Amino acid sequence: MARRADRLYAGAAGCISLAEIKALGAAYSVQPKHDGCYSLITFDRTGSIGSIIMRSGDLAPASIRQDFAGVRWAPDSVLVCELEAWTEAANRLAAGRGYRIATILDAQRVSGRDVTRAPYRERRDAVFRAESLLVQDDDDRPWVPDASGRAHDPTTGSFVRPVPRSWRRLPIVEQRPARAAEALWDDFVGRDGGEGICAINLDAPIGKRGSKLKCRASSVLDATVVRLSPSHAELRWAGGTFIVSRLSKIGADLSVGALVECKHDGFTERRGEPRHARLVRVRRDLMRAEVVA
Question: Boundaries of CATH 2.40.50.140 in the chain?
């Protein structure tokens, strides 16, 4: 399964700027880039979850599988989702809601039909059609409210947590035309603090190069190299340290004490470290200035 998940990776695999997205035309759409982790969720012939598989090919931890226990969707389906887990923002949203969700980004199989070679617009349409049947036939709420709004088990009458068990746990990602990229950015990133947006080629099958591109809110900072390993560099910035990969031409040119410029996607909530930090260049101009001074 790990090899299959890798071969049919359906997430954003490249980068693009906001200006470039707006020039793509009608063959592309834009979607919010939700915070969480890429996963495949499979459903058996009864519509029950068969497995939740991370991008690595491993099963999701038992705590996450338990959180989604009993969730149902269209039978014999494989959904590509952004699972609300791992990141600080995702865990905070789940805690506030009382349960996790998995946003549907794409699909490999819907109601017994393999859609991997179908264009994205057709895969998305199949997901919406399957969901419409669930909304019509499944109330998604295995509880009954009392006069005060508290939830009760309909069989035993005992109090239960009002946790949905069907389509509400698996919302379909919002989508807008590429020409609306700036408005989506303002709403999702500027207003709500989202991670970024993605551009989607509506005519591409799963796995086509460049069919899904991400646009993140990035900034830069300067930091000093304090330790090196063959694969990573530890950098000091603002009184703390963080780790970046040095598996690049820039990373191979590092030395302890060097000043480097890093691009990052904001800061973590708990420790205030740069998120998704990556090397941009060695700041030899600033290093020379310090020597002259």
Answer: 219-292
Determine the Cα–Cα distance for residues 199 and 26; give it in Å rounded to an integer: 11
Q: How many CB atoms lie within 10 A of CB 172?
A: 17
SS3 percent helix, strand, coil of the chain, rounded to 5, is 25, 30, 40
Contacts of 156 (CB under 8 A, 6+ apart): none
Of the options 2.30.40.10, 2.40.50.140, 1.10.390.10, 1.10.540.10, the CATH number for the domain spanning 219-292: 2.40.50.140
* Beta bridge partner(s), residue 52: 41
Q: Which residue, 139, 140, 39, is CA-closest to 80?
A: 39
3-state SS string over 25-89?
A: CCCEEEEECCCCEEEEEEECCCCEEEEEEECCCCECCHHHHHHCCCCECCCCEEEEEEECCCCHH
DSSP 8-state assignment for residue 96: H
Q: pTM for the whole thing? A: 0.77
Average pLDDT, the chain: 87
Spatial distance between the Cα atoms of 101 and 153, rounded to a whole number of angstroms = 22
Q: What are phi and psi of 18, to 5 degrees?
A: -65, -40
Residues of the chain with CATH 3.30.470.30: 2-216
The CATH class that applies to domain 2-216 reads alpha beta
Beta bridge mates, 219: 264
Residue pLDDT, tens place only, 11-43 = 988 889 999 998 899 999 999 999 889 999 999
Q: What is the DSSP string of 113-151?
A: EE-TTS-HHHHHHHHHHHHHHHHHH-----SEE-TTS-E
Across 157-182, average pLDDT: 88
